What we know:
The chain is α/β, with parallel strands linked by helices. The protein contains 22 helices and 14 strands. The protein has helices spanning 38-49, 88-91, 107-131, 133-136, 139-179, 183-196, 201-204, 208-222, 231-247, 274-285, 297-307, 338-342, 363-369, 388-399, 417-421, 435-438, 443-450, 461-470, 481-493, 495-499, 507-510, 513-529; strands spanning 25-29, 53-60, 66-70, 73-79, 226-230, 253-258, 291-294, 314-315, 350-354, 377-382, 406-410, 426-429, 455-458, 473-476. Strand 10, helix 14 and strand 11 form a beta-alpha-beta unit. Helix 9 (231-247) packs parallel to helix 10. The longest helix has 41 residues, at 139-179. The relative contact order is 0.09. Residues 1-21 and 533-538 have low confidence and may be disordered.
Amino acid sequence: MEMQESGSDRPGSDRPGSDRPGRGRVVMLVDNKVEGDSRVQKAAESMAAAGWDVTLLGLVRSGKGRSWKLGDAEVRLLPLKTPLAKRHAERHRSLLRRPLAYPPGPLAAYRRQWAKAWRADVATRRAALKVAPQAVGTPGFRKTEQARLVVAGPASKVMQRWIEFRSRQSTEAQKAGRRLQGPLDRAFTAAWKAAKGKRAWRRLEPALWDYELTYGKEIDSLKPDLIHANDFRMLGVGARAAVRAKASGRQVKLVWDAHEFLPGVRPWEDNAHWIPGNTAHEREFAPYADAVVTVSEGLADLLRERHSLTEQPTVVLNAPDRPVERIDEDDTDPVPNLRELCGVGPDVPLVVYSGSPGPQRGLGDMVEALPHLEGVHMAFVVPNPAAGYIKGLLDRAKELGAGDRLHAVPYVPHWQVVPFLSAANAGCIPIHHWPNHEIALITKFFEYSHARLPLVVSDVKTMSEMTRSTGQGEVCTAEDVSDLVRAIKQVLADPDRYRAAYDKPGLLDTWTWEAQAEVLDGLYTNLLSDPEKAENRP
């Protein structure tokens, strides 16, 4: 992947294409493909607009990398290679899990094919003795061959069964080795935690090194003045890059942007290594951060306590752009019409869910509620409407006789989200009780608010308290379909009552990205204007 470096290596350099002096080079890091991550996109674009020379590094998990401009910020996607993500069972035979299993690799398939070939050969030789004895050989040889086949037939059958058994053992060993959920895995985790403490991630989650080897050289070549590391994987990448820069005589500030409370995350990989490995990695590198940014006061308190931070993390809310008419040379497409995409008219009640899907986010509860909401349609605005999980929800709606009232539509660019959602009658956030759900006002809460939608939210702590205090919606009990039905009916019956909450002076003004960008810009400015700060970081 060929990329051109922009800007100079000095803080305060003139940024190409800008009419104001550059304020310093910022490298932002994120462990995704950027598209769909509105917080990261808005941070990069707004900081570039404020005069920082911003390069945002993301990744692609297959294919080649690419680059593009996001406002004045440059986005580069790097191709991620993940050989270290292979688990031990995928690389070595596990004598403790399945001692009779074949080692990983082609041997099991080779042995199965060899056994089938032997059986085929025995059958062919038997047939040849019957139909073409002269072709087999002399009478003496045919007698010997017949005697051999008496033994070879049963022997080949036994061997084939033995090989199939060992192959099944290999398959089971690899499945168990990837799941990492058994007592052996828990013992392995406990042993490395006891032996290495916060350095145990090197054994529990060695795939974290794949990110380092993908991003490290690219960061070094950019010579940043400030590294903004988004979330836990990029914390280590950013910290190591800052250490290398300081060792070479350059002062670099590290900002860690913690999007979630890692111990409270429901991992995509539900195994005995994931949480202990990643939390150990976070504990090792959190002390290297010159400043910590996060999404809510509740999470800020948890981070300060967990990592013994000397300063309270700076809160930058996941707020949307201020709803204004946006005109870009590169973006001439009008905002899509949500109702047209769903095929419903202006008078049809439409409840929307916008965001990442998943069982813990309550989409299944919304589907189960549909049969009890006569005439109401629901729209799921999701990254991939064709994903297996979404297809399953659509199929379930059909089973319930409400398939024609559930619609899945794709994301729109982050600057179009608010006007896009405003076509609905209500916004729904029926998330379940998980630690990270309790402590923050999530992105869709602010997006729905700026779209002036009446809300239906579950009784997770922070969001339900805010909804009750503002009067902008109704609260229902999480995972209680009947109560969800009650709340949806209530907001649809008198929507103006809930929309009136948004007329409160100043309420929506603080819930804008423009206000949050000022906070982030101030943090950058303070860090780079104080050369003595964090001189003694480890």
